[in-house]
Amino acid sequence: MSTPDNEKFHFANNNIRQDFDLLTRAIDASVSGIIITDNREPDNPIIYCNSAFEKISGYTRSEIIGHNCRFLQWEDRSQKERSIIREAVSQGKSCTLEIRNYRKNGDLFWNELFISPVVDENNNVTHFIGVQHDVSQRKKVEQDLWQQQEVMERQIVKRANSLRESEVFLTSIIQTVRESLLVLDPDFCVVSANDHFTKTFKVTSEETVGTKLYELGNHQWDIPKLRELLVDILPTNNPVEDFEVEYDFPHIGRKLMLLNAYRIELEGQFKDQILLAIEDITEKREIERRKDDFLSIASHELKTPLTTIKGYVQAMERMIPENAGERFANMLGKTSQYLDRLDNLIAELLDVSRIQTGNIELHKMPFDFDKMVKETVDIIQSASGNHQIQITGNSEILVSADESHIIQVLNNLLSNAIKYAPKADKVRVHISKVSEFVKVSVTDKGMGISAEDQKKIFERFFRAVEIQQSFPGMGIGLYICEQIIKNHNGTIWVESEKGKGSTFSFTLPINPTN
Fold first, then answer.
1. What is the pTM for the complete model shown?
2. In a domain, 6, yes or no
3. Can you tell me whether residue 64 is helix, strand or coil?
């Protein structure tokens, strides 16, 4: 039988739960972007964001959780406001400021940011709450008014010359670029076409200029995906980059094209026109396909004789005569090591082949994540006498994922941290639980990666010039890591500075939806 005290407890508990649900719904309904960061974790990662923040930034929740807020500034790291934020966080204080941020598609937006600390019963700052408003429109109005006041007189004087120079300049670019370029008016009528376009698509300038794009070549260019680009996407997104279109032209055959569209916002006769760049990547893609086929066939063909050779070497190691010299044993051991390296290389090539053909298989099962990390580190540590691998943090959870593939990712990140930091003596691995994700960061004190190379570091076969000169490899390890994490609906990224080391991090959903 329930007592009055129990009834009061349940009543109070229900009220608390209702208040919490109401608060959560209210935050998600807010038009202000709201995030919460965990000050107790290294690098103060984001552990919560509402729907408005996703809309403002253009990133999804899975791409936000686990990152430090500075990822919104991309490479625009010299703003003085960043120092103000760092000082406020370090001192556990509130601050209000306006800062330049960038959406996922690269668009700049001005962010009015309010940061407030959250303290526990001991007055220790445990979290920070950030409330954000997109004030780009207001900033644009302010900047426009200032610019108009400053340059109005000079614009009047230079207008005629500027228009003539712009026209000549644009015409020169269009004619000299080794890429098909079209200038379209707002009704998609061709204003000009360069020589590369007429040669590639076997048309004349006379039958192109002045004709609607969709009517070119007896309506050959009436392509549904091209209409989608110009009618649906371009008006809401300026510019549109690397939009892939495949089409079978009746007279010149199948073409695979990469389209880039830009609005031309010069005054006068060029206002509201569209620059359409068309790159024919048909042959390039075919070469890539042949290369993938070759890698797949070569890897499979090498696997069988390599397995046989390994078997013979292992048998020879077991049958070394007692009177065999030390030199013989060392040579046999080195042969075995090189065979293992070759076996790993072929395995990676096979992984690339499976990824490219969409045949990579995941077998997701719950496993102890912290235990997996510790065991993987122990194996790497036993083979590396010059580096001490330190593990900090924990998640204390089971993760549903393909354990063997996640071990492969962690192995690659640890091996790289050791390989590319030969003069360092420590590698740090940090584990944390951020919201509904688990996060792992591997930090080294190696040579670091330039900002330009960071953009390409996860591309297939990419290797930085200085790395290529000093360290052997094919540039497929990080590509495989990214594909594995992406197939688990997680994210992987790098933060680095030349000469100061690198931190590779990845997140995985704890309970994936598929």
1. 0.60
2. no
3. helix
